[in-house]
Amino acid sequence: MSLDTAPALDALAEARRQSEICNACRYCEGYCDVFPAMFRERVFSDGDLTQLANLCHNCRGCYYACQYTEPHEFALNVPAALANVRAESWERYAWPGAFGRLFHRSGAALTVVLVLGIAALFLVIGTLRPASGEGFYAHLSHAAMVAIFAPAFLLPLLALAVGVRRYWQEVGGAPIKWRHLRAAGQRTATMKNLSGGQGQGCNFEKGDRYTNARRHAHQSVLWGFLLCFASTTSGTVLHYAFDMPAPYGLLSLPKLLGIPGGLLLTVGTIGLAMLKKKANPALGAEGRSGGEMAFTLLLGFTGFSGLILYAATGTALVAPLLALHLGAVLALFLLIPSSKMAHGAYRFAALVRDAQIRIPSE
Ligand code: SF4
Ligand code: SF4
């Protein structure tokens, strides 16, 4: 057994032990999608446990409801057991694997080095100012931006697709139908698994008190990210399909999507970081909180630096702010397959697989 697989097997063995106890108890059936999926099984393969782990949103409701937590001899801690399996599954699927392990060991340091290193590189490139160009393109040519960002966006997406394919094979996924995507999309949009089952919210940061704060902060980040992505896409379409290059005015589509997107991303990530500071680390994945926090802050900084950059338009601060913003965006892209950013893809895949089992075929 290699040193890399030993902890994964320990995490799976512990999740299996706890799932078998839950399967006999069945008290938490209505809390989330994890327990109905768990109660459908009699024995748990590694793939079953990986699927359960990726369905779990670490709301912690089952921990505070459980009569078998410490000091009971069963010492149940389902949120932590599933979080460990989940984190180790992402590391196992990450491609290239060495980069994934490095991020989970030293995520904060790696993030800072990447952002500052890339920002410094953009500053140097910016000294070779293009002969012409308006707005941001006066500092960095459009051709240079495309040459840098196209591969930096597409290669991590390819790496993530490889990881999700590995996941799909391990959990025994079947051919996907539209109804499965629709069911998974509804659960993602409403974040149903953070609702505590009845809409009362989760116990993430306040122990045995319910709150919807994490659900709302998470929704803010999700919609903020999607709006920012839509803003960039609309700018690309305007540039190539309608020959309307940047800069764009305040009432243009890229700005109407990008400004609220940046605000939602910034506010949501600040909320998630504050909630994470209050939460009990013993109910999360062991040894990953530094990397998770670094990634949350990087996501927020990407949105915030974009807003500040727009506010500084026409001033001498544009060059350094542009370098910093592009450094954050590029670091975010490069870290997609190995950081917490990948969790969105794996969770969606878990919800699709769950829908395949829940929704009978016609
Ligand atoms: S977490 Fe505890 S209360 Fe909930 S099903 Fe498992 S054993 Fe029962
Ligand atoms: S932590 Fe929340 S989402 Fe995870 S299994 Fe427990 S109740 Fe379900």
User: What is the count of β-strands?
Assistant: 0
Spatial separation of the terminal alpha carbons: 44 Å
Q: Average the pLDDT over all residues and give the rounded result.
A: 87
Provide the β-strand percentage band: under 5%
Q: Report the major sheet.
A: none
The rough form would be described as elongated
Q: Could you estimate the helical fraction of the residues in percent?
A: 55-70%
What ligands are attached or bound here?
iron/sulfur cluster
User: What low-confidence regions span 5 or more consecutive residues with pLDDT below 50?
Assistant: 1-5
Tell me the Rg in angstroms. 22 Å
The computed structural class is mainly alpha
- Please work out how many helical segments DSSP would assign: 13
Order of helices and strands: HHHHHHHHHHHHH
What does this structure look like?
This protein is an all-alpha fold and 362 residues long. The chain is built from 13 helices and no strands. The chain has helices spanning 5-25, 34-39, 46-55, 61-65, 78-93, 97-127, 142-170, 178-190, 213-241, 253-278, 289-311, 318-335, 343-358. The radius of gyration is 22 Å and the shape is elongated. Mean pLDDT is 87; it is low at 1-5. Bound molecules: iron/sulfur cluster (2 copies). One iron/sulfur cluster binds at residues 31-32, 34, 56-62, 78-79, 82, 193.
